[in-house]
Structure formats: structure tokens, C-alpha cells
Design a protein that fits this description.
It contains two helices and two strands, in the order αββα. The protein has helices spanning 3-25, 46-65, and strands at residues 29-32, 42-45. It has a two-stranded antiparallel sheet.
């Protein structure tokens, strides 16, 4: 198994564990206001807010890394030698 993949999986599981712990311990409502986009403040339990921001971060990271290949495809290719 690839060590880098194992490390990423363990890291993601630890973050998800923190998310579960936050959800269990933060049940009081929180207000979220974003005047340019939302007309009224949104009031939800803090755990849902944490989960929402985490989800936005994961989706943003996925979009930013989409399309990259891991085998150095972004490195410039060498020009072909001419046989003069």
C-alpha cells in the first residue's frame, strides 16, 4: 500500500472524528450572516455549521486538484532533437 495514501486516509479519519465530536458537544444554535448573499441571518446548530464549512472546504479542494495527474504530466516535455 502506498504510504502517502495511508497518511491521507488517517488524516481524513481524524478530521471526521473531530467533526463527530463537535457535533456531539455543540448543539446550541449559531447565527450566520452574509449580507451580500443572504438577506436574513441563518440560525442552525453549531454542528451543522461546522459540517457545512467542512463540506465547502472539501469540495473546493476537490475542484482545485481535479484534472491533475500524479506522474509529472505538468512538467514541460523536452523538444525533439533535429537530425541536421
Amino acid at each position: 500500500m502506498n504510504a502517502k495514501l495511508l497518511f491521507k486516509t488517517i488524516f481524513l479519519m481524524l478530521i471526521l472524528l473531530l467533526l463527530v465530536m463537535m457535533g456531539m458537544n455543540n448543539k446550541s444554535p449559531v447565527s450566520f450572516a452574509l449580507p451580500p448573499i443572504l438577506q436574513k441571518a441563518v440560525t442552525q446548530p453549531a454542528a451543522l455549521m461546522y459540517f457545512g464549512f467542512f463540506a465547502v472546504g472539501v469540495i473546493t479542494g476537490t475542484v482545485l486538484t481535479a484534472g491533475r495527474s500524479g506522474s509529472g504530466a505538468s512538467a514541460p516535455s523536452k523538444p525533439a532533437k533535429s537530425g541536421k
